[in-house]
Amino acid sequence: MYNAVAMNRRYLNALLVVCSLVVVFGVLCVFEYALRRSGTVKPLSNSRELFVANAFGKSRGNAKNIEAFSFGEKAYTDQYGFRIPKDYKEADKHFARTILILGDSIAFGVGVKEEDTFAGLMRSALPDTRVYNSGVVGYNSYDYENVIVHFLPSHPEIDRVYLIYCLNDLNSQSAELIDSELNTGARNVTLLDRARHMGILAGLNEFLRAKSRLYLYLKGLITDPQMRFYMAESLYYNSDNNVIFNKNIQPIVNIAMTLKGRNIPFTVIISPYEAQLRKKDSLLEPQKKLSAFFSSNGIDFIDPVPDFLAKGMPSKEFYLFCDPMHFSEKGHRVMFEALSRRL
């Protein structure tokens, strides 16, 4: 009798645990579905087929004439692999001038529809201007120089160049991750692939970042990734890292010299991180160092931090949810306004 009662009790306890897990899983699925429907949280992933190796010398680029996903938004490219609006027909237009935009994922406009990016806004505001948006996720200063070296000579129509400078342009970590994915030759990089190269916890983190909106939502609320990313990148601008700074900023000097030799105006826009806009005159050491460097080398630049602060809005509204550097539609609008000062 005692054994039967104990067995029943264990069975009921096990059933209760299973039911509880099912309920918890169901609740999590509901929240995941709600976040996906709202579009508030963007998946931190890109279609692998978006990238191709050796597009500009040793630099990878975007695949040509492709439809792909970038942070949950559809993206389309032209015959050069440059981002364009859907069904964009350049051949039907006559252009009075041509602008080339250099940049990484910020210039590409991840997580935002093309027409809402600063490049798209420029395209709409200046219908007589051709806009080449050569932004590629993971690019750094060396990639920008490769685009100039391999694309500019065969495109004499270019008469102005903008470089959207991100504070992580001195860091090649993003580029190395994408390159390693390209080198696998696989269409989809699995959790196991990532775990092998990064460790099981890092692999799991990358998998959830790409697949789960709820994971990103909770992680964003708990860990403050915006400040964490800024603090990591700001180390490259410390006086202790002048050797690294001077070495990895040199490609931008090379670009400026090349464009000056062709009489093409060149402007660098220093893109701020979200953490830098939380308080006025706070955490701006990287901008001060970059401004001094560009000034001493005769490179035209724009620091749009005052433009953002003048809006009087919470800094997070200019960026994707809990994102350290990628702009929302509102952030792209401010960048467009800053760029327009040099048009």
How would you characterize the overall build of this protein?
The protein has 343 residues and is of the alpha/beta class. It has 2 domains: 1-38; 48-173 and 231-340, Rossmann fold, CATH 3.40.50.1110. Helix content is 48%, strand content 14%. The protein contains 13 helices and 10 strands. The strands form 3 sheets. Strands 7-6-8-9-10 form a 5-stranded parallel sheet, sandwiched between helices. A 3-stranded antiparallel sheet has the order 3-4-5, with no helix packed on it. The protein has a two-stranded antiparallel ribbon with strand order 1-2. Strand 9 (266-271), helix 11 (285-296) and strand 10 form a beta-alpha-beta unit. The chain is globular and about 90 Å long.
Short summary:
The chain has 343 residues and is an alpha/beta fold. It has helices at 2-38, 105-108, 118-125, 141-151, 173-184, 191-198, 200-211, 213-223, 225-234, 242-261, 285-296, 305-310, 329-340, and strands spanning 51-56, 59-62, 67-70, 73-77, 83-84, 97-102, 129-133, 160-166, 266-271, 300-302. It is built from 13 helices and 10 strands.
